[in-house]
Amino acid sequence: MSVPYYVHSDHLNTPRKIPQASTGTLAWRYDADPFGTAAPNQNPGGLGTFTYNLRFPGQYYQAETGLNQNWNRDYDPLTGKYIESDPIGLRSGINTYTYALGNPLTDVDPRGLDVIINISRQGYSMSGGTVASTITVYSTFSPIAPFSGFSMENANAGDCGCKPPIPAGSYPAFIRGDHTPNRIELIGVPGYSNVQIHNGNYPRNFKGCFGVGNSAGPDFLGNSVPALNSILGIINADGTGNITVNVIDPSPFGGAQ
Amino acid sequence: MILIGPYRIEIFGQITKNTILVLVFAICLVSESHGNATASPLSCKQRTERFLHDPVGASVEALGARPDEDCWLALMRSEDSLQSLIAAVAKGSIPAARYLAPHIRELDGGDLEDADVALGLFSMYDMQEFMHLALSGVITEDEFKSALVMLPLTLSDMPEAQLAELRKRRENIERISDPALGKYRGLGVAAIDSSIEETKRAMSAPQR
Lengths: 257, 208
Fold this sequence. Notes:
Chain A is mostly beta strands and 257 residues long. Chain A has one helix at 224-238; strands at 8-9, 15-19, 26-29, 60-62, 67-70, 73-76, 81-82, 115-124, 130-139, 147-154, 169-176, 183-186, 196-198, 210-213, 215-217, 220-222, 243-248.
C-alpha cells in the first residue's frame, strides 16, 4: 500500500522537508548550505531510508555520479559549480562554471542555459494594494550585463479585483511582440492567464501582470520603459529564446524581505 | 465558362455547338449549387473575420443574431482576433465595444488590461455610449471606473501627459448632462480625481 508524503520546498522551490502525511514524521530532510554541498538526511525520523532525488530547481541527483543533472549541464554540489563549461565557452563571461551567477540564495537556473528573470517579492506595500519586489535578469548565454530593478504587482488582480498575487513558482516565458515595447508572457501560471511583465507606473496599470521599473516608490514604479527595454535587450542578446521567470516569495530563512 | 468553350472547340473539333451549350448549362447548375452552399449560415470564424474586417461599419449582429458564446470563445482563443477586436474598440467602434464589454470579465492578465485600456479610449470617442454600457449593466461599476482610469501604456513615465489625459476624460464626462447617467457621472469623476491625486503623489514622493 502506498503511503502519501508531503514535499515542503523553500522560497526557490528547492525541496527541504518530506514528512509522512498521516503522522507528520520526517522521512527526508535537506538542510544543505546555499550551494547544496551537504547530502540530504534520508532517514531523519527513523522511518527507513527515503530516496528523493530532486535538488535545486531543474536538478536531478544522480547517485551513480554524485552530480545533479541540470538539463544542459551537470552541477557538482561539492564545489557548487557546473562540471562542464558553458556550452558557448567564454562568451558567457569570465567564469563559465558558476551556478545562478554565484547567488543561489536568490537565483535559480532550472535549465542551466536560459535567460533567468527572478522576481523576489519583498512583501505587501504599506497600503496593502501592491506587492513590491526586486527583479534581476541575466543571461547564461551572453556576456551582456545583468539587470537589477524593481517590480510591482497589484495585490487585487483580475477583473473582480479579487485574485491574489500569482503563485510563486518557476515558469517558462516567451516574448509577446504585439505591444510596444514588447512584453514577456509567462506560461502555465495556475489559475491565471496572460500574466505578463510590462511597463507601467501605478497599481491600476496591472491586473494580473508584473510591472518593472528602474526606481520605485510607494505603490509606484519609475522609469518603467527603460527598465523593460533593458530586460528585452538581455533577452535579445541571449538569443536562445529560453526564458524562465522565477517568482520567489520572501525567504523564511531571512533572505529577501 | 466563356474560356472553356473555345478551348473545347479547338481541342475536340467533333464536339457540336449543342453539346457545348449543354456543358455550359451543367456548369451553371454546379456553380449555382455551390453558391447556395456558401450562402448557408457562416461559421463563427467566418463571421468573426467578416466583423473584424470592418468593425466600424459592421453591426454587432454580423456576429450572429445573438453573439453566441461559441463565437466569443473562438475569438478569445485567437490572440490575433482578440487584439483586433480590442484595437477596434480603442478606435471608437461602437459595435466592437458592445461586443467586447460583456466579455471583459472573462479576460485575465494583460488581455484584461488591454481591454480596459481600449474601453477607456473608446470613452473619449463616445462617453455617452460608454456610460450607457454601465447604466444597462453590461459592465459593472468597477469595470466602468477601471476603464476610465486605465491609460494607454504609451503614456508610461510621462506624468504630465497622464494628467492631461485624465483631465480630458474628466471634462468629457462632466459634459454628459443626461440625468439618467448622473450616478455614473459622479462615479467617473471621483475615479478620475483619485487617479489624478495618485499621479501627483507619485511625482512628489521619494523613490528608491
